[in-house]
Design goal:
about 500 residues; alpha/beta; GMP Synthetase, Chain A, domain 3; Rossmann fold; Helicase, Ruva Protein, domain 3; 4 domains; 5-stranded parallel beta sheet; 4-stranded antiparallel beta sheet; 20 helices; globular
Length: about 500
């Protein structure tokens, strides 16, 4: 157990003195301190760092508060110590010495425990150690066994995530699930376009669980990783080990990019069964994807129903104020000295996603450093011009115009209800290319062409089927893809 210890100067009657009176109900006093702190901090910061701290005991002129671990203590000491002092002072405790102390559970190898284990002759009891396991050498050309998945990124924590109106619900849901406080559900689906923070939140959730010793059996994989691991297990006659790992040895499963499962029937069936095992054992499951389960093509109904069992939270593009806070936090983290007017200009011009913001910030800082020139708005304009240009190259509208020009049809015709082949085929190709080259959902793509999302899914499937035949359509799509990728729209 980790203990935060508040030491105060002793007063008579073994009580804390506050402006001439004595505190006899420390529980009530501590709740007042937390209540005052709650009013001064952002909601997510309070829930993350202050709310878990509880009154443990108070005697001998000390107040002891329970806290999860040493890392937690360090965060409190570095960031919230002045706030504790200030709020105690407001309530009348002006002469207080606050200490942070780690109090660990005694382990069998500790000195005190060893002393207890001594027998009457002063000798330690014999301890039988398990036989040492020798590591099996890997044969040349044979792949190593899969581990618990991908590594978490160091900066992808709840504390490093900038919360805005676009992500407040997703952040709160992720933090609550990590702390085990979502009632009635242990499944979370994080929905957003690429670069808006769903990977950050899913990894933050996993890191929070591990850091706070809630579980060590956290598996973080992408849908592609899961598929490849299953194929590897089948080819190497180790499918039983694969099933046991995910069904019985997993407490938290974080599965990213679920849209990758489209059309992979065997993987979908195995994942659906695995989810049943995890749900029956009340394990935590976190999904992330660019589309809702109902909008992912070629996804079987069994898996769809399980993906939609939990809480679905969407992360939208950040507004100006949030973008500005993201840039300032990134600048501080990496030690960039960026003038306010430049930061404001970047926040105004780059508004699609966080990765785009980071690219602009890093580009401005790098050019200023490498060229040895002042970082100003003019320099920022020269850097952002290329970013905005490349971003504007591929949009649904630009793809629509390209298809219309190449097939000599009007934009009015391509969104019409016409069933003529000269209209239908280009429309299907445009829908397919929009799905391939943009982050838009199938529903939005279908709406752009005046079609239901089911029709859009059908169009994508038709084009995919014809592409496999490598006929005329394959040549046409190769030509169009090359134009799109080279910016010749």
């Amino acid at each position: 157990m980790v203990v935060v210890e508040f030491s105060c100067k002793p007063t008579r009657n073994h009580a804390f003195k506050v402006k001439g009176s004595f505190i006899k109900n420390m529980e009530s006093f501590w709740e007042k301190v937390k209540y005052q702190i709650k009013k001064t901090l952002p909601d997510h910061s309070y829930r993350m760092w202050i709310e878990p701290v509880e009154l443990l005991e108070y005697d001998n002129f000390c107040v002891k508060l329970s806290s999860p671990n040493a890392y937690f203590i360090q965060r409190l000491k570095n960031n919230y110590l002045p706030i504790f002092i200030k709020e105690f002072s407001k309530l009348g405790v002006t002469d207080i010495d606050i200490e942070f102390k780690v109090h660990s559970k005694k382990t069998p190898g500790s000195l005190n425990q060893k002393n207890k284990q001594k027998n009457k002759l002063g000798a330690y009891p014999a301890i039988s150690l398990p036989p040492r396991k020798t590591k099996q050498m890997t044969l040349p050309g044979v792949h190593s066994r899969f581990n618990n998945g991908r590594l978490f990124k160091k900066g992808f924590t709840f504390d490093d995530f900038v919360v805005g109106d676009n992500s407040n619900f997703a952040y709160s849901a992720s933090l609550s699930l990590a702390q085990g406080r979502i009632k009635g559900s242990s499944i979370l689906y994080l929905l957003s376009k690429t670069g808006l923070g769903k990977s950050h939140l899913s990894q933050a959730l996993g890191q929070h669980i591990i850091t706070n010793n809630l579980s060590k059996r956290v598996y973080y994989v992408t849908a592609e990783d899961f598929t490849n691991e299953m194929i590897f297990s089948l080819r190497n006659n180790s499918i039983d080990r694969f099933k046991e790992k995910y069904r019985k040895k997993c407490d938290v499963l974080i599965l990213e990019d679920v849209h990758f499962l489209s059309g992979k029937d065997a993987t979908q069936k195995e994942l659906a069964i695995t989810l049943d095992y995890l749900l029956e054992s009340d394990k935590k499951i976190i999904f992330s994807g660019c589309e809702l389960p109902d909008e992912i093509p070629k996804l079987n109904n069994q898996l769809k129903s399980r993906l939609t069992l939990g809480l679905v939270t969407e992360i939208d593009a950040p507004d100006y104020a949030t973008r500005l806070r993201i840039l300032k936090k990134k600048s501080k983290k990496f030690g960039y000295d960026i003038p306010n007017q430049v930061t404001e200009y970047i926040a105004q011009e780059l508004c699609d996603d966080v990765r785009q913001l980071e690219s602009g910030l890093y580009g401005v800082a790098a050019k200023g450093h490498l060229m040895g020139c002042n970082i100003d708005v003019e320099l920022a304009k020269s850097v952002l011009a290329n970013i905005k240009k490349s971003k504007k190259r591929i949009t649904m509208e630009s793809i629509k115009k390209l298809i219309c020009n190449e097939f000599s049809i009007s934009e009015k015709e391509i969104i019409s209800t016409s069933r003529k082949r000269r209209i239908v085929k280009p429309r299907q190709m445009a829908i397919f290319l929009s799905k391939k080259y943009t982050d838009m959902s199938i529903k939005k793509i279908g709406r752009t062409y005046n079609k239901y999302h089911a029709t859009a899914i059908y169009s994508i499937n038709v084009v995919e089927k014809e592409l496999k035949q490598k006929g005329v359509l394959f040549e046409q799509m190769s030509y169009l893809s090359k134009k799109i990728e080279t910016g010749k729209l």
